[in-house]
Amino acid sequence: MVAPAEIHGSPGGTRAGDARPVLGHVNLMVDTFIANANLEDLRAIVRGMLATSPPSTAAAFTAAARQRLVRVNAADLPDTAGIFAAETGDNTALPTQKLDGILVRIRTLYGSGMGFASLKILARVVGATIGLRWEEDSVMEDTLAIIDADISQAIQSAKEEIEGGRVTEMQDAREVIHELRSAINDSQMDVKKWNGAFPFERGAASLEYWRV
Q1: Tens digits of per-residue pLDDT, 79-95?
Q2: Among 70, 161, 62, which Cα is nearest to 116's?
Q3: 167 with 115: CB under 8 angstroms?
């Protein structure tokens, strides 16, 4: 239990012999709420706050999110081996739980304005589909359609990243776009070999006329 003196703090803002500031009563209570609230409640509160606050609040929120993601190395390329599993006897593929975790990271990145970091990972995900097959109206086909939508949203996030002046190395950005474009083109050629439906139409269309 937190002692009353620690809750309310001392008049000077610090305890004797301790250079760290003592949390005020409200801050401590808010932190207690954050530590104990469930995820659904926190999401609802954040969405409500951002929807009713000035645009500067959302900008500060995403800036803080990017700082956190950089700190935890969220933009590092993950190991994409095993994100799709081929069924025994053929190349018919299924998504694995490992893919789910990677897609969550991708959406966290482009949702916070780190579009190019997410596109770099998406290029690896697209590349992992080459050599695989899937059936029409299958779980795999549905998953690839979702990834296609992620590509389009990540491209929009990357465009906003450029417009916001947050891209410092344009050559690196061009290399990411080239890598993704190459992966999508390779996928299209691979799917033609077995007369499958190309799953990344939206992503390919978004990339077609994008020049950086």
Answers
A1: 999 999 987 666 689 99
A2: 161
A3: no
- Crossing angle of helices 139-163 and 115-127, rounded to 10°: 150
DSSP summary character for residue 145: H
Q: Are 98 and 82 in contact (CB under 8 A)?
A: yes
Could you tell me if 132 and 93 are in contact, meaning their C-beta atoms sit under 8 angstroms apart?
yes
Contact predicate 155/210, CB 8 Å: yes
Helix 139-163 × helix 97-111 angle, to 10°: 20
pTM surpassing 0.85? no
DSSP 132: -
Max distance between CA atoms of the chain, in angstroms, equals: 75
Contacting residues for 162 by C-beta, under 8 A, at least 6 apart:
173, 212
Q: 186: exposed, middle or buried (C-beta count within 10 Å: 0-12, 13-18, 19+)?
A: middle
- % of the chain at pLDDT higher than 90: 78
Position 29 confidence tier, pLDDT thresholds 50, 70, 90: confident
Q: How far apart are CA 15 and CA 9, in angstroms?
A: 8
